[in-house]
Amino acid sequence: MIPVDPNSRTTLVLNKHYQSNSRIFTARAAIRHMMNGRVKGIDAVGNCVSWTGDEVTEVEGYSSSLSWSDLTIELHPDQPCLRSAPNAITGIETRWPIPTIVVCTHHFGYYARKGQSVSSKAIYRIYKGICQYCLCKIPFSEATKDHVYPKSLGGSNDDFNIVLACRSCNAKKDNIFPYFDANGNEVKPKGMNQLISGLPERTVIREEWKQFLFIE
User: Fold this and answer.
1) pLDDT at 213 > cutoff 80
2) H/E/C letters for each residue in the chain?
3) Residue 204 clears pLDDT 80, i.e. is over it
4) What is the pLDDT of residues 134-145, one digit of tens each?
5) CB–CB of 209/101 below 8 Å?
6) Please, what are the domains in the chain?
7) Mean pLDDT across the chain, nearest whole number?
8) 152 falls in which pLDDT band (50, 70, 90)?
9) Which of 29, 35, 98, 130 is deepest in the core (most CB within 10 A)?
10) pLDDT at 66
């Protein structure tokens, strides 16, 4: 593990649907929220684990005995950590691993309001009236908002999960994810691309973050 400054930005924050809103915790904030049970950390092999290991959820869907506090999770070779001052008697310092990705179990100052979402007019304007599936220019009367990660699977109403689609393509897509446009490219919302500009320089974006930021 590599010791880092408590104020260094180390941890990408995901909501409960594993979506990013470009927020990044400092090492101090990440460890504090982990210990308070407000977030769970994703380890190097994809296990989503709380600080104490309660209610462990693994990508494959089964439970196991893992814990960040006991260092029973899988760590990255360059896993950041915080360290204590050496013990006055033994001279040994304590190191706490900092998860590089956390999943929120609580809201952090934002609560979605029922029915609140980006407007159809705004989506039509952002995508210049072009359906993101068939790539054809469509009139506003045929425009619909479609959730890239389907609502039936837990997708949110945030702009980074919504694209413009004509009625026909929206019905055809149904709850398929991922979905590809007429040119064979995976459809990715512009909202997410705009949020990326708020992240640190690309040189400090960790490899394991990229799948959540739609970065190749």
Assistant:
1) no
2) CEECCCCCEEEEEECCCCCEEEEEEEHHHHHHHHHCCCEEEECCCCCEECCCCCCCECCCCCCCCCCCCCCCCCCCCCCEEEECCCCCCCCCCCEEECCCEEEECCCCCCCCCCCCCCCHHHHHHHCCCECCCCCCECCHHHEEEEECCCHHHCCCCCHHHEEEEEHHHHHHHCCCCCCECCCCCECCCHHHHHHHCCCCCHHHCCHHHHHHHCCC
3) no
4) 999 999 999 999
5) yes
6) 2-111 (no CATH), 120-195 (1.10.30.50)
7) 82
8) confident
9) 98
10) 86
| Cα→Cα distances 6→3, 84, 104, 180, Å | 9, 11, 20, 41
CB half-sphere exposure, 160, CA atoms < 13 A:
16
The predicted structure's pLDDT at residue 64: 57
9-14 and 101-104 beta bridge pairing: parallel
> How far, in Å, CA of 66 to CA of 97, rounded?
14
Cβ atoms within 10 Å, residue 152: 10
Contacts of 56 (CB under 8 A, 6+ apart): 47, 48, 49, 50, 63, 64, 65, 66
Side chain identity at residue 61, one-letter code:
G
Q: Report the alpha-carbon distance of residue 205 to residue 150 in Å, rounded.
A: 27
Q: What is the model's pLDDT at position 195?
A: 42
pLDDT tens digit sequence for 76-91: 999 999 988 787 788 7
* CA–CA distance, 117 with 91 (Å, rounded to integer): 55
Tokens 């469509």 locate to 138
Predicted confidence (pLDDT) at residue 52 exceeds the cutoff of 50: yes
